[in-house]
Amino acid sequence: MADLFSNLALGFGVAFSPINLLLCLVGALVGTLVGVLPGIGTIATVAMLLPITFGLPPVGALIMLAGIYYGAQYGGSTTSILVNIPGEATSVVTTLDGFQMAKQGRAGPALAIAAIGSFFAGCVATVLIAVLGAPLTKLALAFGPAEYFSLMVLGLIFATVLAKGSVLKAIAMIVFGLLLSMVGSDIETGASRMAFNVPELADGLGFATVAMGVFGFAEIIRNLDAGAEMDRHLVQQKITGLMPTKKDLIASAPAIVRGTILGSILGILPGGGAVIASFAAYTFEKKIAKDPSRFGRGAIEGVAAPESANNAAAQTSFIPLLTLGIPPNAVMALMVGAMTIHGIVPGPQVMQKQPDLVWGMIASMWIGNLMLIIINLPLVGIWVRLLRVPYRLMFPSIVIFCAIGIYSINNAPVDVILAGAFGLLGYWLIKHDFEPAPLLLGMVLGPLMEENLRRALLISRGDWSVFLTRPLSAVLMAMAAFLLVLALLPSLRKKRDEVFVESET
Amino acid sequence: MSDTPSHGPVKSIMPKWVRGPQDFVGGIALMAIAVFALWASSDLQGMHGFSFGAGTAPRMFAVLLLGLGFAVMVVGLVAEGAHLATYHWRGPLFVSLSILSFAVTIRPLGLVISAFASFMISALATPETRWTETIIVGICLTIGCSLLFPYALGLPLQLFPRFLVQ
User: Fold this and answer.
1) Are A183 and B33 in contact (CB under 8 A)?
2) Is there a domain that residue A222 lies in?
3) Which residue of A40, A384, A470, B1 is most buried, as measured by CB atoms within 10 A?
């Protein structure tokens, strides 16, 4: 216990110098301002701003990066809520209820609760890392390939519950996403798969490209349809209240706590943990809600829980990052890149050799969260006012920002064309009531899933029963099966009801 | 996000025995995608003893999608469902053209021309556009982007056409 406090004290001692605080504030501010441009997602923002930190000393640079990271992430959540464009995989879920809230004129409360939830989650996760860091690392090590595969399966089943409509179509979308993730080079043999000799496809389809396409461009095209005009007009008329009401706070407080707990636990698992965390938190809220049908139609818990989970997971995912060197998502991978530039190689030694750095960083994560809430609560009003910009001027601007954002990631014009193609695909999907969120999750988890499946089967010498004979894996599989049945039951029951109604008339 | 039109009698091109055209067509399209993926990955190596080849996982997912597409199609056959939604050509056409024009012109013509041109093309996508207003906003946005991305963020974006700079 004494150890814990000395560690945290060391961290805050490092982070709490005026210059470091200022760096963090500047980082968070710039990160938010760039990240909030629709179409410039979290990944693009961090990548764009990374070079600013190169000239600073390592600790200062990492602290500023933490600020940028949180700013960018919050900026991504803002665009998810305001214009239905998720900045990264973890904020896909935020679009579901966040954007609906914005449509109902409640963008302000949604933005505020996202910031508050994130801050709370950040506080808890900081303490949690300090208390449980070492023992939890051992848990992560108990996860073999079979367990990871089962965890991915569970994560994908979570995604079906996200869907508002048919479970079958949601599963089809997940598999479609998995299939899309196969484009590119094979991880083990390096063979080019379904890339049709397009050099830009050799690395696979980028998350940003597909996300901007099926969410950003498709949403714009759909909004331009005749008949959608009324809908838009309504959004601009109905902005009410910037801050959450007491009722909102009471509704979201338990959701924030649950999201934080789930996020902290799942974030520790290396690879995909942070993504699954936000999906899991949303699913959990929907399952225990008295009236699950509110979700996807603007339930504030549907914003509060995943945003808290996502932030808690981002924080605790530093444990696998620092101890095993595995980045949990693309943004963290960029952070590892930045750390390497400063001569810090993530791995088991970092905790022992450079404790000031590790704890300084954990402390700075907390400070980054604090800065975020200081900057963003007053700014909520400004972001919401963006919604009042007439759509005829807003949508060409979003198109341009998206195009520049996608182009700037790899300097590849082909990526922009691909995003456009995915925009048309997304429009078609909307017209056929297929939902893009499960597709995106399938795409993110696909490569991890394949890798772990391959490894697990290699270790078990081709024996598929390994997923059921290893206890931890069996538990995860059982949970997945249970969830699937739970998700399918209502639709089966509904069908029966429909048939019943028909025969009556 | 359902866009199914509720007004007026919809003339269906589908035969009568298709009770949910939206799912029916959607399922068939998914099956087509799966078949295409099977064809595209047919040249990849398959299972190699008990270790996966490069083509194993793509084919596995493609077969799964084929099955699911079939199931969605069957649902469209047996269950009463939504009609095909109406498509509009103006939005998709001009937004796609605008994206395409950006992709084609950004390298040779630079950010200023390419961003402004794309802005104008995408503005064609809606009849609501008021041109003087759109041109002013387009110019402001282009100037803003030209200052923000290459200067403030230091991105390697060319501002002006290549033949002018050289």
Assistant:
1) no
2) yes
3) A40
Give the residue carrying structure tokens 């893009």: A436
Both B72 and B107 in one domain: the answer is no
Residue at B146 is within a domain = yes
Domain range holding A68? 2-138+148-204+213-504
Chain A residues with CB-CB distance to B57 below 8 A = 182, 450, 453-454
Residues 6 or more apart in contact with residue A145 via CB below 8 angstroms:
A451, A452, A453, A454, A455, A456, A459
Is the whole model's pTM more than 0.80, yes or no?
Answer: no
Cα of B10 to nearest chain A Cα, Å? 15
- Phi and psi dihedrals of A185, rounded to 5? -90, 145
Cβ atoms of residues A278 and A310 within 8 Å: yes
Query: Would you say how long chain B is, in residues?
Result: 166
Write out the residue range of the structural domain in which residue B69 sits.
Answer: 21-78
- Supply angle C-alpha A118, A335, A137, rounded to 5: 70
CB-CB neighbours of B61 under 10 Å: 26
Q: Which of B95, B139, B145 to mutate to test the interface with A (most CBs of A within 10 A)?
A: B95
- Closest in B40, B53, B149 to A194, CB measured: B40
Tell me, yes or no, whether B125 lies in a domain: yes
Identify the bridge partners of residue A193 per DSSP, sorted by sequence position: A184
> Using CA of residue A468, residue A470, residue A471, residue A476, what is the dihedral sign?
negative
Phi-psi region for residue A343, left (φ > 0), alpha (ψ -120 to 50) or beta?
Answer: left
Q: Residue A143 falls within a domain, yes or no?
A: no
Residue A160, both tokens: 């079906």
Same domain, B102 and B142: yes
Task: For residue A413, give the nearest of B49, B103, B120 by CB distance.
Answer: B103
- Partner-chain contact A191 B95, CB within 8 Å: no
Q: How far apart are CA A267 and CA A309, in angstroms?
A: 9
Of B34, B52, B78, which residue is a domain's last?
B78
> Measured between alpha carbons, how far is A467 from A503 in angstroms, rounded to an integer?
45
**Residue numbers in B near A222 (CB within 8 A):** 1, 3, 91
- Chain Cα centroid distance, residue A202: 25
pLDDT tens per residue across all 505 residues of chain A: 556 677 777 777 777 788 888 888 888 888 888 787 776 667 677 766 776 776 777 778 878 888 888 888 888 888 888 877 776 667 788 888 888 888 888 888 888 888 888 888 888 888 877 776 666 666 666 778 888 888 888 877 876 765 666 788 888 998 999 999 888 888 777 778 887 878 878 878 877 788 788 877 887 888 787 655 555 555 555 566 667 788 888 888 888 999 898 888 887 765 556 667 888 888 888 878 888 778 888 888 888 898 888 888 877 777 766 666 566 666 666 676 677 767 776 665 666 677 777 777 777 778 888 888 888 778 777 777 776 777 788 888 888 888 888 888 778 889 899 999 999 999 999 888 888 878 877 887 788 788 888 888 888 887 888 888 888 889 888 988 888 887 777 666 555 444 444 333 3
Please tell me whether residues B142 and B109 are part of one structural domain.
yes
Q: Per the structure, how many domains does chain A have?
A: 1
User: In angstroms, rounded to a whole number, what is the distance separating the alpha carbons of residues B10 and A390?
Assistant: 32
Residues B94, B72 share a domain:
no
Helix or strand run (H / E) with residue B141 = helix B131-146
> Under an 8 A CB cutoff, do B51 and A458 touch?
yes
